Amino acid sequence: MAAPMLRGRCLGRCWALACIDSGSRHGRGAATGFTSSGKRGQSFVAQQPLLTAQKSRKGEHKWAAVVGLEIHAQIASNSKLFSGSQVHFAAPPNSLVSFFDASLPGTLPVLNRRCVEAAVMTGLALNCHINKKSLFDRKHYFYADLPAGYQITQQRLPIAVNGSLAYSVCVGKKWRQVITKTVRIKQIQLEQDSGKSLHDELRSQTLIDLNRAEGQLRVDANISVHHPGEPLGVRTEVKNLNSARFLARAIDYEIQRQINELENGCEILNETRSFDYKLGCTVPMRDKEGKQDYRFMPEPNLPPLLLYDTASLPAGADPQQVINIDRIREQLPELPSETREKLIQQYGILPEHSFALLNEVGLLEFFQNVIKETRAEPKKVTSWVLNIFLGFLKQRNLAVNESPVTPSVLAELLNLLDRKVISSAAAKQVFEELWRSKGKTPSQIVSERKLELMQDEEALERVCHAVMEGHPQVVMDMKRGNPRAINKLIGLVRKVTHNRADPTVIKEILEKQLSS
Amino acid sequence: MLGRTLQEVSAALKQGQITPVELCQKCLSLIKKTKFLNAYITISEEVALKQAEESEKRYKKGHSLGALDGIPVAVKDNFSTSGIETTCASNMLKGYVPPYNATVVQRLLDQGAVLMGKTNLDEFAMGSGSTDGVFGPVKNPWSYSKQYREKRKQKPHGENEDSNWLITGGSSGGSAAAVSAFTCFAALGSDTGGSTRNPAAHCGIVGFKPSYGLVSRHGLIPLVNSMDVPGILTRCVDDAATVLGVLAGHDPKDSTTIQDPGKPFMLSSLTDVSKLCIGIPKEYLVPELSSEVRSFWSKAANLFESEGAKVIEVSLPHTSYSIVCYHVLCTSEVASNMARFDGLEYGHRCDIDVSTEAMYAATRREGFNDVVRGRILAGNFFLLKENYANYFIKAQKVRRLIANDFVNVFNSGVDVLLTPTTLSEAVPYLEFIKEDNRTRSAQDDIFTQAVNMAGLPARQPEQPGRQVVEHVVETVPGDVKNAQKQ
């Protein structure tokens, strides 16, 4: 039928266990005091008697939130999961619908091999146990975008279970500190996607597109709050979130909403909500009343899905007809965790930087190309790529492959810096120029703007001396221990030297001259 | 000519004794004459004549496609036929014209068969009388036989001559009547709990239910996906074998078919049964069995024994649970399969447009008859979370036990089982409708549906040389290859 989907369920107890001081939460700031306040919450419960929500005063109790994510990811395949029809992004409505997709009576599902392989690959990449036998089920509900009146999914026995994913979280002041966390993957299952419905309020109509190639990644979040040590609270489901940013905002909002409700003595309903992007809040979904009984039933038209490994492969099996898990494992590309580990070993960079390098498409390759062509230390390269280069990209909303600065160019710049031809400040200036005007090399810009560092140390010493002589008041401030005074002097020296002196060296000379 | 078997008329076509167009016209004319039987819902006259012309061209060139080339056939109206209305005898699909052919239909057409029309059935194949479709009931051709009319004259009722007509049985009654009345040489039916064998018995013809997975269900509008099979109705066993040879084999569009590709096969002309072991299941000797059927059953067993076969009593201990087990599983799958009929993509849609839910409800109430709706409700009940373990899972376990009963018997040296198909002969319609569909199904399916649950092949053979309205016994082979000609 539909575009093939992988559904992963992460149980986020480890992930989003944010002990929150009610009232002190703003947006992403929840991460502040992540681990430490968790511990505080724990000990708090142990030492003092628990008050019920109704009797508590606001702000007195610690809350723990539990978040589970259901991720719907469309498999990259040429045709759909159960029907032969094609998958194409942004095709005209209902132009890619086979008889099965339209649920014409008498049509039957036929499993797409590529989708199964993709599911196995995903399971292996997420450290899951691959079930050698998995089953398909029907999940029944009536909705206009579900022509058969049921969705084929894997509820009883999915294709992969019990996996994990390591990721980085920014904590601490200004999120400078990065720690590694692990989230559990409960299961991965193959399932049909439903169609798309567009509501035409004007004509009181709903238009249905059964192509099912939209929404390549969708997340539903299940959220509840409770006091640590107590049983889990009632959960709500927030559906159809399409970006990481909105996902985070929706979860944060919902956690706070639930806390507020409970502290005001209200109950949390086990309901489905959607996220209003404009208002930044979750709202109940009108068309879901009460809990649905999906009347799960085995899908009788699809026999159990059997997968093999090299050991269990039947003799003389047609390779076209069987899937070998070991073969798929061999074909897996290097996984991010492996790449990150290699980076850390090879270049001595920090773990959090290894995450950052892999999180942006093309950035790792850019980084590696720069490293190849420069003698500068990897730490320096990392810093330039992650802070300055990436910063420029983000400001201008560009992807790595849209950067006007190529790895060679940046490497050349870093070489100049490394040879101390220019100062750090000058290098930044050059970089800005490189970004604006293509075609010029760093060396060209340096000589055009006369940014070479003064090599003559004696001349610099004379300038420093002269500046100090010319500003006795500032010198007095310096002597009194005012830290800002020296910066003023440095600034003056730089002016005189047209910024061609390294501020670090200036500072050294000034301090030396002052003490003498 | 029309009274001949498929193989005989195929030979006649080859020899030029008759042309495909002549044959087709004769059948069409007979269909019109026997319209009162109500066996056909749609008569595809234009299509048939065109196909007959094509066939004639092939015969003239000497390039006939095979035994089915130019042969008039009929197809039960729950098989999808491209460009020809497919209704399942339901208001829900009145006017629905599918854009594709069911695999079995395509395979027949690829062999040059000529499609006379779509035959009548119980709505969505739910029933054992072919009386509950929206186009009215099918009349058993034997109601108009000399024997039956003479029998009726002995009991003066003084009513209208036609009021005491007999049912065909169901749910493939239209196909059975079409074959039995000589309007075609083979017909497709479907069999979920006996729907091919039951009407075959009542109409005095051969009804064959293949093993589950042997013949593709792609395009067969499903009743119970895990039990449905396409069925074959013909006037003799050899004809059924011919048709099976064309239909059987792997279909990539149906994931529940066997992997082997099909190939034609012929029944052995061997009439030596001395190596055969025939089992008589003792649980099938129920008090409701009519004396006539019981005597037939004995006669058949004795016939085999006298020809040298070993005839023994066997036990299928879980037989008494099969009706309830079948009903739980059948209604559950029905509830699921009928969920797609919501009036949105195809078929009937009501006039209400207040809300989607209101539209669904009205469409389904108007589109389905009581029988269908009753089964949907029952099925949904069994599938509720709180009931699933107690009903559906339990029924699946019992189903396994029933299937194992057969496995055990066939593993103990028995080749074939010999049982009745129906409790009694075909009854008059007026008597049949005294009980509701559910009761009738429960009664009439008793000998046939265990076989569906076990996925086994079974055949309702015609009674050679007899022209009376009696159902006959059915044989359940342990292995299709061992099917013997009677």
Automatic annotation (TrEMBL), chain A:
Top-level lineage group: Eukaryota
Organism of origin: Felis catus (Cat)
InterPro entries tied to this protein: Asn/Gln-tRNA_amidoTrfase_suB/E, Asn/Gln-tRNA_Trfase_suB/E_cat, Asn/Gln_amidotransferase, Asn/Gln_tRNA_amidoTrase-B-like, GatB, GatB_Yqey_C_2, Gln_synth/guanido_kin_cat_dom
Ranges for domain Asn/Gln amidotransferase: 365-514
Localisation: Mitochondrion
Catalytic activity annotation: L-glutamyl-tRNA(Gln) + L-glutamine + ATP + H2O = L-glutaminyl-tRNA(Gln) + L-glutamate + ADP + phosphate + H(+)
SUPFAM superfamilies: GatB/YqeY motif, Glutamine synthetase/guanido kinase
Gene designation per UniProt: GATB
Protein name as annotated: Glutamyl-tRNA(Gln) amidotransferase subunit B, mitochondrial
Family: Belongs to the GatB/GatE family. GatB subfamily.
Function: Allows the formation of correctly charged Gln-tRNA(Gln) through the transamidation of misacylated Glu-tRNA(Gln) in the mitochondria. The reaction takes place in the presence of glutamine and ATP through an activated gamma-phospho-Glu-tRNA(Gln).
Pfam families (UniProt xref): GatB_N, GatB_Yqey
Main subcellular location: mitochondrion
TrEMBL record, chain B:
Pfam families linked: Amidase (PF01425)
Record-annotated Amidase domain positions: 25-145, 166-459
Signal peptide: none
Main localization category: mitochondrion
Localization per Swiss-Prot or TrEMBL: Mitochondrion
Entry's family note: Belongs to the amidase family. GatA subfamily.
Protein name, UniProt field: Glutamyl-tRNA(Gln) amidotransferase subunit A, mitochondrial
Record lineage: Eukaryota, Metazoa, Chordata, Craniata, Vertebrata
Gene behind the chain: QRSL1
